[in-house]
Structure formats: C-alpha cells, structure tokens
C-alpha cells in the first residue's frame, strides 16, 4: 500500500477541465515535488487528495483510504497545509498551539519547542496581528508537531524568509529520515526542488507529464553543445530547445545514452561534442518550454 | 561541520558538486588518506539535501576509488597514488582537447593557456607530493 495513489483522477469545473486522468503514486518515505505552471492543476489535485474537493470521476487514496472517506482518526496521521491556511485569528500563537495539541494524542512537545525556537515564532501576538510569514510558520509548526506520517503541502515556501526556509528544509529531511515520512509538496520554487525532492511529478494543463525519480531524470537529460555549424540535414529524436550560432549549435537531449553519445562522436568528432548533466531547474525549464510550444 | 568545503551553486547538479568538492579536498590534502568520511545522513542534514542525492555522490566517489566502504564501520578516504602515464593520458586527453579548442576559440595562444593553467594550479593549492 502506497501512502498516495490516484486512479484516473479527474475534476471538471463547468467548461474547464482542471485535472484529467491523473495516475500518481508516491511511495513510502518519498519526498515528492508536484510541479507545474500556474493554473496547471496542482492545487486542485492536492485539494482532491485531502478530500476537500470531490473528483468528477476517478479516485484517490491516502494510506489506503479513499480521500472522500477520511475520518478524524485518519487525520491523526495526515498533515495538510494549504496555500492560505485558515487560523483562528482571535487567538495568540501560544493559545492556538495549546488548542491544537489537545486534538492530537501523538503531539510531540519537545519537537514543538525546537520548532518554536528554530522558526523564532512570537507566541504572545494575536494571529490577526501577525505577518503572512508568521502565520505560515505557525501553520507549518501545527502540521509538523504531531508527527503525521503523510504530509500534503501546498506552496510551503510562500512568504517565509530564507532562514526559516533552511530550518524548514532541515526539519523535513530530518523527519523523513527518522520516521519514513512521506511528503507531497506543490511548489513554484524550482530551485528548492533539487535539494529536497527524490521524486518529481509535473502537471501541465491538468495532465501528468512526468512522474519519475529525480535521479532518473538527471540520468537521461543532457545539454549537448557541438563546436561545428549545424548541418542542413541535422535531425535527431528526443531533442528540445535547439539553438544555433555561427560555428556551433546546442540542444537538450531528453533520453541521452552512451549510444547517443557514440553516434554524436562519430558524426562530429569527440573533441567537438560536449554533453553535460543539468541541474533540475534547467530540466524543468526545458520541459515547460516544450509544453508551451506544443500548446 | 563537514571535512570538505562546499558551497552549492544553482547552475550544476548537486551530486556533481559534492563529487567535485571531495575530489578537490583530497587533492589539496584538506582530507587525508584513511580519514573517516561522514555518513550520508550527516552530509544530507549539513547541506540540507535529499539523502538519495548524497548517496549518488558517495556511490560515484566509491567507483572512482576515492572512498572505500568498510561494512559496519562507514566510508574512508583513500588518496589515490599517481596513475600510470597511459591512464593519465586517457583520462585527461578529452578535457585537454576541449580546453585547447576553447582557448583557440577565444584567441589565446599556447603560452597564454599555460600561464592560466599555472595560475589555477597555484590558486587551488593542489599538493604536488601526494603519497
């Protein structure tokens, strides 16, 4: 049983298909990044996973239970932080923590204290008077401190400063290593993905385009530069982003293998061919551009 | 604190940067032969990087012969002795060919390239008398 499984998950809004036939599996202990441009269907997917939105067809299961049938008992082991988490505005941070703590038998007091310190969270201020970043930190704390086994995060890095982001990344990594937590996080901050994620799911116009380990993606993507003019007849499968200049041309190969390399060496001479592996951000941008070109 | 210096930059894959940082630390003597290498977990938490990425770098360093895994004890640094002249030529020729092409492309002559090489060598403080 995987902590997250969706089967042909689909959601239609009036005449707009937000999510179409999505089949996503996230295995235990994985840190999976859910990516896509604005409006691609990330938040709709997460809301359906959390049971806050009904699918038009298809289904999703969290820890084996249908998302639409999650009970309070299930929520003891699942955490969810939405983009604009609602908090009780009239409470102070300390009051909200004390209130939430009672709902969770698994609440970890030591962990709560270390998070308060790491996030340097002001406790005596009313939430209505807190900044966006402080509210975000508070909702992250509330979702981490009871040590759920599965965490769904929608844009967890929005509005928090670099230092808190570092602490939060560290906290997530530590917990996934200690307790085999599973985390799915939707984000637009691509630069954090390579550090945090081991699995990447990319949605475009409601459809799942990529669901793969980060390692595998980095194995198969290469930026190839050739120190020769592009021959008129040059054609190759699985390339995107062809750029040409005088005496050189470059492209991104999406299924690079030793065979492809050997072929390029024969055609252009080994010294003229440079194939380098790519940071995830470049891979994502190349894919996003190819989706845009197709549309 | 890690026994090798590293500052992650966004323009290269993270596992490659870790491999490169350890190679440099061994070449400069910052890490010594026989020294214990930190665990995957420790590196992951220090750099705040997914442990699978660190594991990939450690695997590559082991394949390259810079680390040796002693089961139950962890990994240890093995500073390589100099390779044979033939192996050195085989390993370095592709890089040097590319370097020469780039140098020529930018209008640098042979003496100019040698000057740049000498400067880099000194700047990185590579030890010449490795065991």
Concise summary:
The complex is a heterodimer of chains A (295) and B (131). With 295 residues, chain A is of the alpha/beta class.
Summarize the helices and strands and which ones pair or pack.
The complex is a heterodimer of chains A (295) and B (131).
Chain A lengths: L3 E10 L2 E7 L2 E2 L4 E5 L6 H8 L7 E6 L2 E2 L5 H4 L2 E4 L11 H9 L7 H10 L13 H13 L5 E5 L7 H18 L2 E5 L3 H7 L2 E6 L2 E7 H7 L1 E5 L12 E7 L2 E6 L4 H11 L4 E5 L2 H15 L1
Chain B lengths: L13 H14 L8 E2 L2 H8 L3 H13 L3 E4 L3 E4 L7 H21 L4 H14 L8
Antiparallel strand pairs in B: 1-3, 2-3
Helix pairs in contact in B: 1-3, 2-3
Task: Name its key features.
heterodimer; A: 295 residues; alpha/beta; Rossmann fold; 2 domains; six-stranded mixed sheet; B: 131 residues; mainly alpha; Arc Repressor Mutant, subunit A
Count the DSSP helices of chain B. 5
Averaging pLDDT over every residue of chain A, what do you get?
A: 91
The end-to-end span of chain B amounts to 26 Å
Strand content of chain A: 25-35%
- Detail the poorly predicted runs of chain A: none
If you had to describe this structure to a student in words, what would you say it looks like?
The complex is a heterodimer of chains A (295) and B (131). Chain A is of the alpha/beta class and 295 residues long. Chain A contains 10 helices and 15 strands. The longest helix of chain A has 18 residues, at 162-179. Chain A is elongated, with a radius of gyration of 22 Å. Chain A starts with a strand and ends with a helix. Chain B has 131 residues and is mainly α. Chain B has 2 domains: 14-77, Orthogonal Bundle (Arc Repressor Mutant, subunit A), CATH 1.10.10.10; 85-123, no CATH class. Chain B is 53% helix and 8% strand. Chain B is built from 5 helices and 3 strands, in the order H-E-H-H-E-E-H-H. In chain B, strands 1-3-2 form a 3-stranded antiparallel β-sheet. The longest helix of chain B has 21 residues, at 85-105. The A-B interface holds A 31, 166, 169-170, 173-174, 177, 191, 194-198, 213-215, 218, 227, 270-272, 274, 277-281 and B 8, 10-16, 41, 44-45, 47-53, 56, 94, 97-98, 101, 105.
